[in-house]
Specification:
Elements (H helix, E strand, L loop, with lengths): L9 E2 L2 E3 L16 H14 L4 E2 L3 E3 L7 H16 L11 H5 L3
Parallel strand pairs: 1-3, 2-4
GO molecular function, one term: NAD(P)H dehydrogenase (quinone) activity
InterPro entries: Flavodoxin_fold (IPR003680), Flavoprotein-like_sf (IPR029039), NAD(P)H_dehydrogenase_qn (IPR051545)
Protein name: Flavodoxin-like fold domain-containing protein
Length: about 100
Amino acid sequence: ADLVIFQNKLALLSFTTGGDEEMYSKKGPSDNIRFLLWPMQHGILHFCGFSVLSPQICFASEYVTEEKRKEMLISWVKRLQTIWEEKPIQCVPEWYFGDI
């Protein structure tokens, strides 16, 4: 990407889903979540010059126990503490679709 304003900047998607992780797997009715992420991570963020980190996804947060929601938050806090050390994902079709 030639947009200098976003080069050397990190970006990631952080979101919750209405379904559990299995629903967004290659065997689930919603298919692999990587298909959903491809246009956003590659077509928008990477294309504009960002280095894209792995997404932070909390599956079915509305339906899990309070304890599980706390675990999700703790996991996110821990990740944020070391986020600057993370390696960006490879925004190429093989990363998204190679093992599907």
